[in-house]
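I trust your eye. Have a critical look at both lines of this record:
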Amino acid sequence: MSTMSPTGVGSSAGNPPHSKVAYVRRRAVVLAAVTALVAAVCERDAESVLRRGSDSGIGDAPLDGRIALIPEPQRQRSVSMNGDTLDGAELSLSDYRGRALVVNFWASWCLPCRKETPELVASAKALAARDVELIGVVSKDHGKPQAQAFTRRFELPYPSLWDPDGSMMLGIRPRPIGLPTTLVLDRQHRVAAMVSAPITRTTLLDLVTDAVPVLVTPA
């Protein structure tokens, strides 16, 4: 037996009116479009977000975006760090005076850190060829054994400072906003670029090229 819908369009029992079907289809199309847009924005990720200095990222405020390239006139005081590495050796950034540095803050419990570590390992040789040193900082980890197991698992070819209380982040301007965070320091060890997200090899090498062009001669 057929019934009449409120719109006057007949439908068999158990089947929705044509107007409702059309509404559902339109909604599905809109949702698909929104999903595609969100996916496209996410895919830009660390490759293209905020390739510039940000007023909100200069001074005591955290960076407003996930990537910032800080113009030379806006770079602040030099970053100073020293302490023991996971291997027990003493290390200070002043040991690398006059050289550009990449400093990566990580922790063994940090899933995004695990995601980016193979990219950092792949970058180490290319950075060394450009006279740029890569240094890790283990921040707020549960303990040295966990951090040391992490370095063995991913075969980190660079040293990592042990910073269990996260104090090495405190004096940095702009201020890092979480883990992982990667800094590109210029020859004076001022922050020239900062990434507050998992970084890729391509993004890191591009940021080094942009931040310290005098030091970089692509192969």
